[in-house]
Amino acid sequence: MNASAIELRHVTHALGNAGVAFSFSRETGSVTAVLGPSGAGKSTLLNLIAGFLAPDQGQVFVNGRDVTALPPAGRGVSMVFQDNNLFAHLDIRTNIALGLDPALRLGRAENAVIEAAMERVGLAGFGRRKPGTLSGGERQRVALARAFARRKPLLLLDEPFDGLGPGLAAEMLSLMLEIRAEVGATVLMVTHEPAEARAAADRVLFVDRGRIAADAPLAGFFERSDIPALRHYLGSGAPD
């Protein structure tokens, strides 16, 4: 039996007077939309997987390997944030290169990977430009290029398209799915847009008050009437 791409076993983490508790697993190559109200614990979930937060209890596994005690760099995970997480004083090429080696020890092969990644996301020739000279969509392309260059088996997306207009967000989502297919990555994508979940995901995690209130296939999920928190989150009726 193949190991799950990601598995959380009884993971807990205290947050102020409350906390989160998560247990779930995902098959390799799956795309999961993570939805829920603001403050429900969605970003905390991704940060626990990525290693930016440490569990108080429980274990995190990536491709069958216990990574609970490992730093982010040792987990086989790439993460794309809403704010791009780019260094403003460094050019685009260097921002991508940091994803390959924080010490920037780059050989011919690594340099070729960087050039290919920029070309893949439509930024060929942008290498010497600074993030501040780019549009929001272009900055997200840089973040996707960095993830593409790293080719990690698990890709975590924390509302990376939230600050973009609907048309550009759809374009970036499509590009992300193409890159995911080429890399063969498993994806967990935090979003507040049911339309993004419908377009990209095969399963949905609905998080409410620090717990997984529902974990189910996408088909028919938004029409379910047996999850009060989901109905409250969506408002009256199913999303368009």
From TrEMBL:
<dbReference type="InterPro" id="IPR003593">
    <property type="entry name" value="AAA+_ATPase"/>
</dbReference>
<dbReference type="InterPro" id="IPR027417">
    <property type="entry name" value="P-loop_NTPase"/>
</dbReference>
<keyword id="KW-1003">Cell membrane</keyword>
<keyword id="KW-0997">Cell inner membrane</keyword>
<feature type="domain" description="ABC transporter">
    <location>
        <begin position="3"/>
        <end position="234"/>
    </location>
</feature>
<keyword id="KW-0472">Membrane</keyword>
<dbReference type="InterPro" id="IPR003439">
    <property type="entry name" value="ABC_transporter-like_ATP-bd"/>
</dbReference>
<keyword id="KW-0547">Nucleotide-binding</keyword>
<dbReference type="GO" id="GO:0016887">
    <property type="term" value="F:ATP hydrolysis activity"/>
</dbReference>
<dbReference type="InterPro" id="IPR050093">
    <property type="entry name" value="ABC_SmlMolc_Importer"/>
</dbReference>
<dbReference type="InterPro" id="IPR017871">
    <property type="entry name" value="ABC_transporter-like_CS"/>
</dbReference>
<keyword id="KW-1278">Translocase</keyword>
<comment type="similarity">
    <text>Belongs to the ABC transporter superfamily.</text>
</comment>
<dbReference type="Pfam" id="PF00005">
    <property type="entry name" value="ABC_tran"/>
</dbReference>
<dbReference type="GO" id="GO:0005524">
    <property type="term" value="F:ATP binding"/>
</dbReference>
<protein>
    <submittedName>
        <fullName>Thiamine transport system ATP-binding protein</fullName>
    </submittedName>
</protein>
<keyword id="KW-0067">ATP-binding</keyword>
<keyword id="KW-0813">Transport</keyword>
